[in-house]
Automatic annotation (TrEMBL):
The keyword Repeat applies. Keywords: Leucine-rich repeat, Repeat. SUPFAM superfamilies: Outer arm dynein light chain 1. Coiled coil: none annotated. It comes from Cepphus grylle. GO terms for cellular component: cytoplasm. This is LRC43 protein. The keyword Nucleotidyltransferase does not apply. InterPro entries: Leu-rich_rpt (IPR001611), LRR_dom_sf (IPR032675).
Length: 327
């Protein structure tokens, strides 16, 4: 589940282990803030002695931070770790009480769990009350229950999973979502087109549907036209992208679109395709593919066989080949 991967990620960060967290390496620095009853330092506390204890028996915050930031340090994070991970570890040095126990849930605004074998988006995510960005790319997720997603989400990235149905995701979707990434999944049209409307995603600005199995261009555009805030759309890799009028029809049908398939839509292109949206008859539900065979290796060449004399009774060997292409 996502929660299990989340806790495993925190364990790897070592937020309670040296040089982070509360420990013998910095204990007096935080004890000095509290009285024996847990409040502020009592009137009998000796600041000079406390400072001396920190300097002689413990590590200073500056030294601990250097251990985290120096790329040659054994406690440095790998280069592929996110800025959020680095921020959490630095916070665990300067204010470890903020990342202790359940307090850590209030810190996360972005969560990236990539290629961790996650199959389930469970309700444990609801503890992340401040979460705005959730990246779950390259996992094994086939269905997403929207009730388990924080309502604060603005970015949801599910690229390279096994999502084939959007019904559960659209039952109660995050109302403020601005980017939805569903590229490289198993979505098929037209059964899923009905879930790509403003009724479910009123604030959607960016939508990635690349490399799925959408085939009905006219039907999909009819649904997408309700997304008034949509500015970025990616549809490349779908069968409908093979239609000759594909780009022109989309550019003219969605006048507020700024970027299509990672290519900016300029005024010249809008002028060139003006009026194409009113000619749906130009959209053909077929495409022609020409396959040319350059060279085949590993089979005998019939032209190189010795020619038999006329009337010869020697056995004749013939060859036939079947070449199959999968699209």
């Amino acid at each position: 589940s996502v929660s299990a991967a989340f806790w495993e990620h925190l364990r790897r960060l070592g937020l309670q282990d040296f040089p982070c967290g509360l420990g013998s390496w910095n204990k007096s620095r935080f004890n000095a803030r509290r009285s024996p009853r847990g409040g502020r330092p009592g009137p009998g506390a000796d600041p000079a002695r406390q400072e001396e204890t920190v300097l002689l028996g413990e590590e200073s915050p500056e030294v601990l931070m250097e251990l985290l930031r120096d790329q040659h340090s054994p406690w440095a994070l790998p280069p592929d770790c996110s800025p959020q991970d680095q921020h959490l570890r630095e916070m665990a040095v300067l204010a470890p009480e903020l990342v202790h126990s359940s307090n850590v849930f209030q810190v996360f605004k972005s969560l990236r769990i990539i290629d961790k074998g996650v199959e389930e988006v469970d309700e444990g995510l609801l503890q992340l009350h401040q979460l705005e960005e959730l990246i779950l790319s390259a996992n094994h997720i086939s269905r997403i229950t929207s009730a388990n997603l924080p309502r604060t989400l603005k970015v949801l990235e599910l690229c390279c999973n096994a999502v084939a149905d959007l019904q559960d995701l659209c039952a109660h979707p995050p109302p403020e979502l601005q980017h939805l990434g569903l590229g490289y999944n198993r979505l098929c049209g037209p059964s899923q087109d009905k879930y790509l409307t403003a009724a479910f995603w009123p604030n959607l600005v960016s939508l990635d549907l690349s490399f799925n199995n959408f085939t009905d261009l006219l039907g999909l555009v009819t649904q997408l036209s309700s997304l008034q805030k949509l500015r970025i759309l990616v549809l490349q890799g779908n069968p409908l992208a093979l239609i000759s009028t594909y780009r022109g029809f989309l550019v003219d049908s969605l006048p507020k679109l700024s970027i299509l398939d990672d290519i900016h839509i300029g005024p010249d292109e809008r002028h060139q395709f003006h009026g194409l949206a009113r000619q749906p008859e130009l959209i053909r539900s077929e495409a022609r593919v020409v396959v040319s065979i350059g060279k085949i290796k590993g089979v005998p060449d019939p032209s190189a066989c010795p020619q038999l004399e006329v009337g010869s009774k020697a056995p004749v060997i013939t060859y036939s080949y079947c070449v199959t292409y999968e699209f």
